[in-house]
Write a structure and sequence with these properties.
0% strand
């Protein structure tokens, strides 16, 4: 984990915000299909807005959560899922923010596809900035999975 973190720190230190913005737009934003899709439904079902998204919305409803009006990404976006995990770890609602809910949510909505997402990012040779982020993400989520397996 330390090596991939150092790699992220190096690219962050040596590249201006505009370079990050440009690489993000080039690879993750598109009118058609972007180079890399950041939504779980794509990896779990082969298409966007499929059953995995419905399942995530049901889980969020059970937690009493909903997307903010200003959010344009669907709830199966990797960043939205990480935010849900943050809430399940550090939220104030002791009935919802439990280790059991963390484990179930991670296993059902993140674990099966994060490797494919990281592969997709790392497989683009021109992806210089986000490739170390993908490597770090892979290591971090693998450790999370190992921790949940111990429960």
């Amino acid at each position: 984990m330390a090596k991939v973190w150092i790699d992220v720190a190096e690219v962050a230190k040596n590249n201006p915000a505009k370079a990050w913005h440009d690489e993000f737009d080039l690879n993750f934003i598109s009118v058609g299909k972007p180079n890399v899709v950041l939504n779980g439904s794509f990896y779990m079902a082969g298409h966007l807005n499929e059953k995995p998204l419905v399942n995530i919305r049901k889980a969020l409803e059970e937690f009493g959560l909903e997307a903010a009006e200003e959010v344009t990404e669907t709830e199966d976006h990797i960043l939205a899922l990480c935010e849900v995990m943050r809430y399940l770890i550090a939220g104030d609602d002791v009935e919802v923010s439990t280790l059991t809910n963390q484990r179930v949510f991670f296993n059902e909505h993140i674990r099966s596809w994060y490797d494919e997402l990281c592969d997709a990012i790392e497989d683009i040779p021109e992806m210089h900035l986000y490739s170390p982020v993908a490597a770090h993400t892979r290591e971090f989520l693998a450790i999370e999975g190992q921790g949940f397996d111990m429960i």
